[in-house]
Amino acid sequence: MRLLQCSNDGDLSLTEFVKDIPKYAILSHRWGAEEVTFKDLTDGTSKAKAGYGKIQFCGEKARRDGLQYFWVDTCCIDKSSSAELSEAINSMFRWYRQSTKCYVYLSEVLRTAVNTNNLAWESAFQNSNWFTRGWTLQELIAPKSVEFFSKEGKLLGDKSTLERQICEITGIPAKALRGSPLSDFSIAERMSWAGMRTTTCEEDQAYSLLGIFDISIPVIYGEGKDRAMQRLREEIEKASKGFKREDFSVAFSLSDVPAIEHFVAREDELSKIHRTLKGDGSRRTVVLHGLGGIGKTQLTVAYAKRHKDDYSAIFWLNIKDEDSLKQSFVKVAKRILQDHPSASRLSNVDMNQNLDEVVDAVKAWLNLPNNTRWLMIYDNYDNPTVAGNVDPAAVVIRKFLPESYQGSIIITTRSSQVEIGISIQVRKLRNVGDSLVILSNASRREEMMNDPDARRLVEELDGFPLALATAGAYLNQVSIGFADYLRLYKKSWAKLQKMSPELGSYEDRTLYSTWQISFDYVEQRNPLSAKLLRLWAYFDNQDLWFELLRHADSKDPEWIRQLTEDELNFHDAVRVLSNHGLVEVAMSSQELIESKGYSIHGCVHSWTIHALNQEWDSDLGRLAVKFVGAHVPGEEDVRPWLTQRRLLQHAARCSYFFANSLVADNGMEWACYNLGLLYADQGKLIEAEAMYQRALRGYEKAWGPEHASTLGTVNNLGLLYQNQGKLVEAEAMYQRALQGYEKTWGPEHTGPEHTSTLDTVNNLGLLYKNQGKLVEAELMYQRALEGKEKAWGPEHTSTLNTVGNLGNLYKNQGKLLVEAEQMYQRALQGYEKAWGPEHTSTLNTVNNLGEIYRDQCYERVKKSALQKLRFHSGLTERSECGSNINQLVALCLRYKSCRTALLSLLYKVFLWMNEETLSLLAFSYGVSDAIPRYNRFCDGCRCDIDVGTGCFSCKSCKDVDLCRLCFARYDSDELKSVMATCQDHTFTDFSTTVTVENAEQWLQELARDLTR
């Protein structure tokens, strides 16, 4: 490092230091037209340059500050040496940081402007071009002492005294100006500081940031800005993460997370979270714990937004209970697939069925090697499995954490007993100013910092963020002042203390008074709103919607019938609650078939339970159970699973009522029965069994053991046990139901009102089939079919269900493919007539029929000497497989919703017949119909697949790909799922180009050729 020294005669000299560098001052300025260079100093021509005056200025200021040496960038670096220039650029930040004084020379700020008035000099200061240059960013941040001078050398102030102005001009936080480690600030935030700055050389846009990110790269002028920035970003990635994040990047989104617009305070907590989580990608976990409403979620949102560029992906999960958590994993899976559609395990999981598989698939993706920079946020872990918590619904969070020791995790909880990572307690706000800002933002009232009434109010609310926000939301809706609000607050709290002392130690007591005040005004504005809020205590706090409450009859209170008379009444009542901050629109990305719901915060819900309903109201409890039970969808409803998922959390509340004897069973057997149906359809078999057993006891007591309702419940218990694999218990239930029906109606009585007998017979057939008792199964199906045909007719959907079951039975027997085809054809015609071509029952039958045609082709290929079936000769002849292929093609053309699966079957048929070109065409069209971009690695064997010119079709997985080696091993007469160990494959080389454009046109041409 070379330093300048000024002699007593005013002459300048350069001294080079390798180590033991003395104290020195440093100059920061904008380069002008005539700057003094290193060459000018060495050859004695420096004094003739206009820039010599700035050097004299710096030397004079250094001498007055007792410093012998000083440094100026224009002349202390020999820029003719590329090696020295590169070293200097990479050392620049360190040189400024180690300086004793930094003098900023502002040539645009004149003495006249400084001496006029504060507004004039501040305007000149703020408009100085020095703040727009790239290199001056590090010259502002790095030195401990930065002093600003006008063109005439007059001191304007320093980095400390001008901090407010500098922060406003640059957008740089005060902490950064005060010397906080730059690693405390995210990459994106540091990049934003340079966003509006420019440099003369385009490459310097990158080079001027090296010190800001504490990295070094070779200096290559002429490479261009884009290349320089790319190298900068790559080096930042290496330094902070050790790998390229793009491999696992997922677009940042917090769309389902409610967040305030302006987050206030919590800088210490944010820094502590960042320090804990930053590292080399190995597992880091932070647990944020504190009172409900203290601001844990908003703190986490603020951290995620500030540091989003530190992570390859950020996922938010709601862990209030297991159901909510699993639904959050579904959302995470969908987000991953949006950016990584070829994620093999995730792409093969049914998001609507087995949620446990979704959880496992997401965890597997997070466990992948090098996928180390994700952040998982588990929010609302308020019912943890810790000592003393005997709630069976408590969530075991470790089951839902990725196993590999990588990535970052934040958990928010009310419990201080969660001991998974570093625990950080979130406390109340200590600074009254921060509380005033929250109140000001929420109430939209300005200039309240010096309002004594406002200060007294925030002091009373004692730094509790949710209380402040709720008070502000209320004040935003009414015209009263802060003093009136405080008066009402104290009055209402005293009354609450007197009337319900048991609530005095409740953890959210500071919120009770705020919500009581809001409730009083709600009740005055709309009594229906107040009654709805009382009723809400008997539902779950999440997602209450209009249609759910529309099951009132003449026996129910008049107010509930008035509330749900129409949507206008309902939404008007909710709007009043929403205006007072008590209710918000439910944030959900799930598809809905009914109106959107509303939610209330968990703390508000607790308040409605413990304060608003101080005495348990069994009538309201029964009303809630009635509404939930009545809203369970039936088989005939459109996409019933969408409504079922919404009902689950309300059903859990009803189950709690029954389990704790808060609602009497008498008269509610039907509701228990429906809740059992709901739980069974959603795979919650333990809960379903409990509801069915409760319903059974009720029916037996009310109607006797042989009543139709009793026997219907027995039959459903049989279905449940069968799904649980308890086949002995299932058979016992079916036999009991069947014997009861036969005793009541007689074995030959099959009138329409008694077809429940036949349903049980059909279920016994299913059971026997699963047990391998195929003869007994066929007898049951035939009996059920004959009875249903007599009772309902041959085209009733219940009759068709049994026809389909017979088809499945014949198909599984393998030797009865013709009989199976006949059953499927009959079922298909009936379903299409009853439900239409797009109904799931229709499409399932289409798929089964297509598999029959595939199996028939397979049997014929194996038995035939025919090895090659040519398109223009073989297929046009009346070959053994021609009719089956023709039928498959016809199904593809008619049922477009099944086309992907049917083309997969057609692909296999052509493959078995060695029709390589047709096989590839069917495969290609199937892939193009299924997904826009095909995963280039087959799921079974991971061999490369490329649909296009010169492609290799790997045929090792059972679904669409099967290599010749695997097919050779496939010697079973039974067509069952086979996944061979895929090694040493041989492949079919297609040298012709295949263009995937129009499957419809290709299928039509194929159909014409087949029928010639």
Structure characterization notes:
With 1012 residues, the protein is an alpha/beta fold. The N and C termini lie far apart (90 Å). Strands 2-1-4-3-5-6-7 form a 7-stranded mixed beta sheet. Strands 9-10-11-8-12 form a 5-stranded parallel beta sheet. A two-stranded antiparallel sheet has the order 13-14. The chain contains 41 helices and 16 strands. About 10% of the residues have low confidence.
Number of strands: 16
Give the helix proportion (percent range). 40-55%
Q: What is the makeup of the main sheet?
A: 7 strands, mixed
Average pLDDT score: 81
Radius of gyration: 38 Å
Shape: flat
Q: What percentage of amino acids are in beta strands?
A: 5-15%
Give the structural class: alpha/beta
Count helical runs: 41
Parts with pLDDT < 50 across at least 5 consecutive residues: 242-246, 492-510, 865-878, 930-996
- The separation of the N and C termini measures 90 Å
Strand order of the largest sheet: 2-1-4-3-5-6-7
What's this entry about, in short?
By secondary structure, the chain is an alpha/beta fold.
Write the topology of this structure:
Layout: E1 2-6, E2 12-16, E3 24-28, H1 38-43, H2 52-64, E4 69-71, H3 82-97, E5 101-105, H4 111-116, H5 118-126, H6 136-141, E6 146-149, E7 155-158, H7 163-170, H8 174-177, H9 187-193, H10 204-207, H11 225-240, H12 267-277, E8 284-289, H13 296-306, E9 313-318, H14 322-339, H15 344-347, H16 355-366, E10 374-379, E11 408-413, E12 422-425, H17 432-443, H18 452-461, H19 465-477, H20 482-499, H21 509-525, H22 527-536, H23 558-563, H24 567-579, E13 584-585, E14 598-599, H25 602-612, H26 618-630, H27 640-659, H28 669-681, H29 685-703, H30 708-723, H31 727-745, H32 756-770, H33 774-791, H34 797-813, H35 817-835, H36 840-863, H37 882-894, H38 899-912, H39 916-930, E15 951-953, H40 964-969, E16 988-990, H41 999-1010
Parallel strand pairs: 3-4, 3-5, 5-6, 8-11, 8-12, 9-10, 10-11
Antiparallel strand pairs: 1-2, 1-4, 6-7, 13-14, 15-16
